[in-house]
Design brief:
about 75% helix, Farnesyl Diphosphate Synthase, mainly alpha, single chain, two-stranded antiparallel ribbon, globular
Amino acid sequence: MSPVNSFSLSAELERLPSLLEKEIQAFFHRQKERYDYGDLFEPIFFDMCEFVGRKGKRIRPLLFLLVYRALGGRKGLEDKSLIQAALSLELLHAFVLVHDDLIDRSEKRRSLPTFHKLVEQRQGRLSNAERTGQGVAVVVGDLLFALAVETLQQSSFEATPRQQALGKLLSYVTDTGVGEIFDILLGSRDIGRVNREDIERTYLLKTTRYTFEAPCVMGAILAGASAEKAEDLAGVMEPLGLAFQIQNDLLEFSHFESKDQLFPTDLLEGKKTLLIREAYERLGEVDRSFLQMCLHSPARNESSISKVQDLLRKSGALVAIQERGVLLFQEAMERLAQSHLDRAEQEAISQAIGWVRQSVRVGG
């Protein structure tokens, strides 16, 4: 099997988003009869369809498709089972988002209400509307997870690679769950008791594994690539995922600087990011105390957030963390160059990485 050349990969990237969006709509249309449980459930199913269908970069399914094609996968882009396998990753992402928003008590997602808030709003002025929204969101997240697994399992790939890919998917879900637990536990700690290794491990488990490693490894497996190539891709994704998370931290800071109040930010939530930790390490004792006080303030007002921003700029953490991200991207590309992938495959994967990097840079 020979990988697609750079020209065809570029051409496919132009077609993929529209194909995927059509399949998302078609998928839920096909599910409508199955989930016809009457008037009580109908608005919940509608909200679930709307939530998954919201406009987004679709990084995970598109990266999966690009890697599958780059490593010689024989199915064409019009093949329903291929798009279906890709869709399983978007359903998995939706499952993570529903639960993550609930944990963080977020009210907005992509400038629209989070899922638990959608359900809460439908309850009107009922006294238990908030609790109802939260409870329904937990279960809908579980439904989306089940749909993700079922969708991949029902795709028409050969049994052995399909089961291998499914096994990988489930292992990534476990890692993501552990990463979420780490994120919760670190969130309650003082920044002085959170080290860089704790944060990087959380990033790896919570985000990198299912966002970058899962699409690449599953794409490689279903394309029929060797175990060595799949393992090498996983290795490439580790520094790459950390670099993307750093890029995301910087992007969130820039959005907050522009006072985009619709953009959810870890800064507002007081999360322990590498950017915050870097600033803490660089600040003097007095400024460290101010940072700790601001992060642990029960109500983060404009004054405390402004102080955190000032401390981040003063510390030099913004430049330092940006430089770290550049080095991590370089490390990822070096690992790719040393992998078992041939030159054409490396070039195709490099282009896929470049596309994702641009997507994240512009708010993906």
